[in-house]
Specification:
With 263 residues, this protein is α+β, with helices and mostly antiparallel strands. It is built from nine helices and eight strands. The two termini are 34 Å apart.
Protein backbone atom coordinates (compact mmCIF):
# COMPACT_ATOMS: atom_id res chain seq x y z
CA UNK A 1 0.00 0.00 0.00
CA UNK A 2 1.59 3.35 -1.00
CA UNK A 3 1.70 6.31 1.40
CA UNK A 4 -1.47 8.41 1.45
CA UNK A 5 -1.07 11.61 -0.56
CA UNK A 6 -3.78 13.37 1.46
CA UNK A 7 -2.16 16.53 2.92
CA UNK A 8 -4.73 16.75 5.74
CA UNK A 9 -4.29 13.20 7.00
CA UNK A 10 -5.24 14.13 10.54
CA UNK A 11 -8.72 12.58 10.76
CA UNK A 12 -9.67 11.29 14.21
CA UNK A 13 -9.26 7.62 13.26
CA UNK A 14 -5.63 8.06 12.19
CA UNK A 15 -4.75 10.29 15.13
CA UNK A 16 -6.43 7.98 17.66
CA UNK A 17 -4.73 4.90 16.28
CA UNK A 18 -1.32 6.60 16.19
CA UNK A 19 -1.69 7.66 19.84
CA UNK A 20 -2.88 4.19 20.84
CA UNK A 21 0.02 2.40 19.16
CA UNK A 22 2.51 4.82 20.71
CA UNK A 23 1.01 4.20 24.16
CA UNK A 24 1.27 0.43 23.72
CA UNK A 25 4.84 0.83 22.49
CA UNK A 26 5.56 2.79 25.68
CA UNK A 27 4.30 -0.16 27.71
CA UNK A 28 0.85 1.12 28.70
CA UNK A 29 -1.91 -1.49 28.67
CA UNK A 30 -4.92 0.31 27.21
CA UNK A 31 -8.12 -0.96 25.59
CA UNK A 32 -8.29 -0.59 21.83
CA UNK A 33 -10.29 2.56 20.95
CA UNK A 34 -13.40 2.26 18.87
CA UNK A 35 -12.00 3.63 15.64
CA UNK A 36 -14.82 4.47 13.26
CA UNK A 37 -13.77 5.06 9.67
CA UNK A 38 -16.18 5.91 6.89
CA UNK A 39 -15.59 5.53 3.19
CA UNK A 40 -13.41 8.61 2.80
CA UNK A 41 -12.14 7.49 -0.59
CA UNK A 42 -8.58 8.60 0.13
CA UNK A 43 -7.07 5.46 1.62
CA UNK A 44 -7.45 6.43 5.30
CA UNK A 45 -9.96 3.70 6.10
CA UNK A 46 -7.87 1.09 4.33
CA UNK A 47 -4.78 2.15 6.27
CA UNK A 48 -6.54 1.98 9.63
CA UNK A 49 -7.98 -1.46 8.93
CA UNK A 50 -4.58 -2.70 7.76
CA UNK A 51 -2.87 -1.43 10.91
CA UNK A 52 -5.53 -2.91 13.20
CA UNK A 53 -5.20 -6.26 11.48
CA UNK A 54 -1.42 -6.20 11.89
CA UNK A 55 -1.72 -5.19 15.53
CA UNK A 56 -4.05 -8.06 16.37
CA UNK A 57 -1.54 -10.52 14.90
CA UNK A 58 1.32 -9.46 17.21
CA UNK A 59 1.85 -12.06 19.98
CA UNK A 60 1.33 -10.50 23.44
CA UNK A 61 4.09 -12.55 25.05
CA UNK A 62 6.90 -12.13 25.73
CA UNK A 63 6.29 -8.47 26.52
CA UNK A 64 9.63 -7.33 25.12
CA UNK A 65 8.86 -8.92 21.77
CA UNK A 66 5.36 -7.42 21.83
CA UNK A 67 6.86 -3.97 22.39
CA UNK A 68 9.28 -4.38 19.49
CA UNK A 69 6.46 -5.57 17.25
CA UNK A 70 4.28 -2.58 18.12
CA UNK A 71 7.21 -0.23 17.56
CA UNK A 72 7.85 -1.66 14.11
CA UNK A 73 4.15 -1.45 13.24
CA UNK A 74 3.95 2.15 14.44
CA UNK A 75 6.90 3.13 12.24
CA UNK A 76 5.33 1.47 9.19
CA UNK A 77 1.90 2.96 9.96
CA UNK A 78 3.38 6.44 10.22
CA UNK A 79 5.37 6.01 7.02
CA UNK A 80 2.23 5.04 5.13
CA UNK A 81 0.22 7.98 6.43
CA UNK A 82 1.91 10.55 4.19
CA UNK A 83 5.13 11.23 2.25
CA UNK A 84 6.20 13.82 4.86
CA UNK A 85 6.21 11.17 7.59
CA UNK A 86 7.99 8.66 5.38
CA UNK A 87 10.78 11.08 4.46
CA UNK A 88 11.28 12.21 8.07
CA UNK A 89 11.50 8.61 9.27
CA UNK A 90 14.02 7.65 6.59
CA UNK A 91 16.13 10.63 7.54
CA UNK A 92 15.91 10.66 11.30
CA UNK A 93 14.10 7.58 12.53
CA UNK A 94 17.34 5.83 13.50
CA UNK A 95 19.16 8.70 15.21
CA UNK A 96 18.66 10.49 18.52
CA UNK A 97 16.63 13.45 17.35
CA UNK A 98 13.76 15.77 18.18
CA UNK A 99 11.45 16.51 15.25
CA UNK A 100 8.32 18.54 15.82
CA UNK A 101 6.09 21.23 14.37
CA UNK A 102 3.70 23.58 16.11
CA UNK A 103 1.15 26.23 15.15
CA UNK A 104 1.83 29.93 14.71
CA UNK A 105 -0.24 31.57 17.45
CA UNK A 106 1.76 34.54 18.72
CA UNK A 107 3.16 37.66 17.12
CA UNK A 108 6.58 36.80 18.51
CA UNK A 109 7.32 33.52 16.74
CA UNK A 110 10.11 32.71 19.21
CA UNK A 111 7.39 32.05 21.79
CA UNK A 112 5.83 29.55 19.39
CA UNK A 113 9.20 27.81 19.11
CA UNK A 114 9.46 27.59 22.90
CA UNK A 115 5.99 26.03 22.99
CA UNK A 116 7.20 23.32 20.59
CA UNK A 117 10.31 22.66 22.68
CA UNK A 118 8.17 22.39 25.80
CA UNK A 119 5.81 19.94 24.02
CA UNK A 120 2.86 22.13 24.98
CA UNK A 121 1.28 22.37 21.51
CA UNK A 122 0.26 19.68 19.01
CA UNK A 123 1.20 19.45 15.36
CA UNK A 124 -1.55 21.32 13.43
CA UNK A 125 -1.97 18.37 11.03
CA UNK A 126 -1.31 15.54 13.46
CA UNK A 127 1.73 14.39 11.50
CA UNK A 128 4.88 12.78 12.76
CA UNK A 129 6.73 13.89 15.89
CA UNK A 130 9.99 12.17 16.82
CA UNK A 131 10.74 12.63 20.50
CA UNK A 132 12.97 10.07 22.20
CA UNK A 133 12.63 11.93 25.50
CA UNK A 134 8.85 12.31 25.66
CA UNK A 135 8.72 10.04 28.73
CA UNK A 136 12.06 11.00 30.26
CA UNK A 137 11.92 11.33 34.05
CA UNK A 138 13.66 14.72 33.82
CA UNK A 139 10.81 16.38 31.93
CA UNK A 140 8.58 17.29 34.93
CA UNK A 141 11.34 19.60 36.14
CA UNK A 142 12.94 20.39 32.76
CA UNK A 143 10.01 20.53 30.29
CA UNK A 144 12.26 21.20 27.28
CA UNK A 145 14.65 18.35 28.13
CA UNK A 146 17.21 17.67 26.71
CA UNK A 147 17.27 21.25 25.49
CA UNK A 148 18.04 24.34 27.54
CA UNK A 149 16.50 27.03 25.33
CA UNK A 150 17.11 30.73 25.94
CA UNK A 151 14.35 33.21 26.59
CA UNK A 152 12.36 34.26 23.53
CA UNK A 153 14.04 37.67 23.61
CA UNK A 154 17.44 36.02 23.13
CA UNK A 155 16.57 34.07 19.99
CA UNK A 156 17.71 36.79 17.54
CA UNK A 157 21.21 36.65 19.06
CA UNK A 158 21.40 32.84 18.85
CA UNK A 159 20.03 32.20 15.35
CA UNK A 160 21.34 32.92 11.86
CA UNK A 161 19.28 33.02 8.64
CA UNK A 162 19.73 30.27 6.07
CA UNK A 163 19.01 30.05 2.38
CA UNK A 164 16.69 27.20 1.47
CA UNK A 165 19.29 24.86 -0.05
CA UNK A 166 21.52 25.37 2.98
CA UNK A 167 18.57 24.41 5.19
CA UNK A 168 18.15 21.24 3.10
CA UNK A 169 21.82 20.37 3.63
CA UNK A 170 21.62 21.19 7.35
CA UNK A 171 18.74 18.76 7.68
CA UNK A 172 20.45 16.10 5.60
CA UNK A 173 23.65 16.00 7.69
CA UNK A 174 21.57 15.38 10.81
CA UNK A 175 21.38 11.79 9.65
CA UNK A 176 25.06 11.51 10.58
CA UNK A 177 26.52 10.51 13.93
CA UNK A 178 28.28 13.11 16.06
CA UNK A 179 31.39 11.01 16.49
CA UNK A 180 33.20 8.77 13.98
CA UNK A 181 30.62 8.89 11.21
CA UNK A 182 31.67 6.07 8.83
CA UNK A 183 29.59 7.33 5.90
CA UNK A 184 29.01 11.10 5.77
CA UNK A 185 26.20 12.19 3.48
CA UNK A 186 28.62 13.89 1.07
CA UNK A 187 30.18 10.51 0.14
CA UNK A 188 27.14 8.23 0.33
CA UNK A 189 25.94 6.54 -2.88
CA UNK A 190 22.39 7.61 -1.93
CA UNK A 191 23.41 11.24 -1.37
CA UNK A 192 20.80 12.58 -3.80
CA UNK A 193 18.06 10.47 -2.19
CA UNK A 194 18.99 11.80 1.27
CA UNK A 195 18.82 15.37 -0.02
CA UNK A 196 15.46 14.65 -1.65
CA UNK A 197 14.15 13.32 1.66
CA UNK A 198 15.36 16.51 3.35
CA UNK A 199 13.49 18.65 0.82
CA UNK A 200 10.21 16.78 1.32
CA UNK A 201 9.66 17.84 4.96
CA UNK A 202 10.71 21.42 4.21
CA UNK A 203 8.26 21.58 1.28
CA UNK A 204 5.45 21.21 3.81
CA UNK A 205 6.02 24.76 5.01
CA UNK A 206 5.50 26.38 1.64
CA UNK A 207 7.49 28.69 -0.66
CA UNK A 208 7.42 31.66 1.73
CA UNK A 209 8.98 29.85 4.70
CA UNK A 210 12.14 31.33 6.17
CA UNK A 211 14.93 29.32 7.76
CA UNK A 212 17.29 29.81 10.69
CA UNK A 213 19.99 27.76 12.36
CA UNK A 214 22.06 27.93 15.53
CA UNK A 215 25.10 26.63 13.59
CA UNK A 216 27.85 29.23 13.84
CA UNK A 217 28.93 28.60 10.24
CA UNK A 218 25.89 30.64 9.14
CA UNK A 219 26.91 33.70 11.15
CA UNK A 220 28.78 35.20 8.19
CA UNK A 221 27.18 33.30 5.30
CA UNK A 222 23.52 32.28 4.87
CA UNK A 223 24.61 29.45 2.56
CA UNK A 224 27.36 27.52 4.40
CA UNK A 225 28.52 24.20 2.97
CA UNK A 226 27.07 21.85 5.59
CA UNK A 227 27.58 18.79 3.39
CA UNK A 228 31.34 19.27 3.26
CA UNK A 229 31.60 20.03 6.98
CA UNK A 230 29.28 17.22 8.01
CA UNK A 231 27.57 17.10 11.38
CA UNK A 232 30.82 16.45 13.26
CA UNK A 233 32.34 19.61 11.81
CA UNK A 234 29.32 21.81 12.60
CA UNK A 235 29.48 23.98 15.70
CA UNK A 236 26.49 25.63 17.34
CA UNK A 237 25.58 28.21 19.94
CA UNK A 238 25.42 26.55 23.34
CA UNK A 239 22.45 24.62 24.66
CA UNK A 240 21.98 21.28 26.33
CA UNK A 241 23.90 18.56 24.49
CA UNK A 242 24.98 20.92 21.73
CA UNK A 243 21.95 20.77 19.45
CA UNK A 244 22.47 21.81 15.85
CA UNK A 245 19.48 22.26 13.68
CA UNK A 246 17.30 24.01 11.20
CA UNK A 247 14.38 26.13 12.33
CA UNK A 248 11.80 27.61 10.04
CA UNK A 249 8.93 30.05 10.23
CA UNK A 250 5.82 30.12 8.09
CA UNK A 251 2.20 29.34 8.93
CA UNK A 252 3.67 26.72 11.29
CA UNK A 253 6.88 26.77 13.25
CA UNK A 254 9.16 24.39 15.06
CA UNK A 255 12.70 23.49 16.04
CA UNK A 256 14.53 20.23 16.11
CA UNK A 257 15.51 18.77 12.87
CA UNK A 258 12.42 19.54 10.88
CA UNK A 259 12.23 22.28 11.95
CA UNK A 260 14.85 20.46 13.84
CA UNK A 261 17.32 20.07 16.60
CA UNK A 262 19.92 17.37 16.98
CA UNK A 263 20.59 16.56 20.65
Amino acid sequence: MPPSSDPSADRPALVLLDAYLEARWDGRDLPLPEVMVGDSGDGAGELVHWALGQFRRIPREPKEAFGRGVGSLLTEFRSRRCPWNAAALRLLGDVYAFVATGPRRQEDWARDVLAVLHRSVPDPRGWLRLDCDRNNAARPTVPAYPFDPPAASEFPDRLCPLEREAAVAALAVMTEEWQSEPAPVRSRPDRDAVLADARTPLDRYGPTARYWTNATAAASDPAPDFLTAGLQGTRSHGAARRPAGALLKGDRTGPGRVPAGRH
